[in-house]
Specification:
This protein is α/β, with parallel strands linked by helices and 461 residues long. Helices cover 30% and strands 16% of the residues. The protein has 2 domains: 319 residues, Alkaline Phosphatase, subunit A; 129 residues, Arylsulfatase, C-terminal domain (2-Layer Sandwich). The strands form 2 sheets. Strands 1, 2, 3, 4, 5, 6, 7, 8 and 9 form a 9-stranded mixed beta sheet that branches.
Length: 461
Amino acid sequence: MNRRAFLAAAPATGVVAAASAMSAAQAQNSAPPNILFLISDDHSVPDLGCYGNKAVRTPNLDRLAAEGMRFENCFVASPQCSPNRSAIFTGCTPHTIGTSRLHTPMPPWEATVTELLQQRGYFTGIFRKHHQGQGLQEKLDFYGDKDTPFRAFVDKLPKGKPYFLQFGSTDPHRPYRPGAIAEPHDPAKVIVPPYLPDTPDVRKDLAIYYDYITRFDQDCGELLKLLRENGLLENTLVVMTGDNGLPFPRAKGTLYDPGIRVPGIAWWPGKIAAGSVSKELISHVDLAPTWLAAAGVAAPTKMQGASMLGLLTGGAHKPREAIYSERNWHDNFDPQRSVRTARYKLILNADANTGYRPAWDLEDSPSWKSIQKLGRTGGLSEAQSRMLEPSRPALEFYDLQNDPNEFDNAIGRPELQAEILRHRQLLSNWMHDSYDYLPPLYRQPNRDDPSNAKGLTPPAL
């Protein structure tokens, strides 16, 4: 089927789950909502006030959470910018659609959620960053200049048309420079996560990271105010999230939770209960099918995500058993895969013979230089010092209930072998089903009897 035929047939194809089909059918008979997507750049949980970080100032996003739903367990498909954004646009994991390498543009043959919404009558636009190449921005209204006012989209919006608008900020991405906001954060008050050393340089680095988060919050507040004043927030689903974890060592570019667990907020007055909090596992591949379901469009069968519309509105919802994430080329080739359930996480390091390598934009950061300096003088904790070891284990397994910082690799614990086997099988099945180019842990998916796979080890790569 060629691209044009696929797009024409997409609204009539099957959906991921029966609940999604029902939601889409119901939405088809009502006025489609506006959809506003707010996405920060390199931003982890818990770095918003509504997630308990009282040192960072984010009043506008905190208000959205208070009036809508906050997700405790929102995860990216990849801890890298462009691969994960491609997952958001297509509802597919990056290796399925050939976007696993950083900076890869959206392939022209892949249907995106914006094109499907356009078929439903949506006017679509993006401000600033999308990181999906020239092809995507030619298909919608693109405002790439950071000085272009939000008013430009409002003035161009056809009267009476629903809209999909993405505000893709470059905050809080590096490089950092003082002066992002009028009242900078105090380094003495920042919260230093346990995987980073508590040094003056790290604190100053985190304080400027907070400044850039506050600037993102201010921009979101300006956009929301403009839309409200123009009557464009009525019947509007607002979703806010981050594209991957914070730009600090052992976070961005890794499959530990600081690299893949990001803020998630949904706001839709009259549809989403104010002040609600969800602990369900959700993945960024679920966003596109959710938007389509809200608009009354059936998601293409290729989409691997599942609609969360029922979760948002109190309807039928099938919880996820697991979420999956991948890291590939990020100016160095370091292929990794992970499966995370509510309590456990398994990580496959396909190139275990090399040690941890920070993303390129972290190499000159004050935080990484502090780690390197303290590593030479013995000033790191045992867990922190592992970032400087020359190799890594091929498999890592963590009991997140008892080890939330993922410091204690439990892959050899006898009492956890049943869970380890289950997670190895989950990861292998996902790699098979999603057409991963990496060899999976098991040669063939064996869903009925995972014990048959005992004794197989990760392939030597």
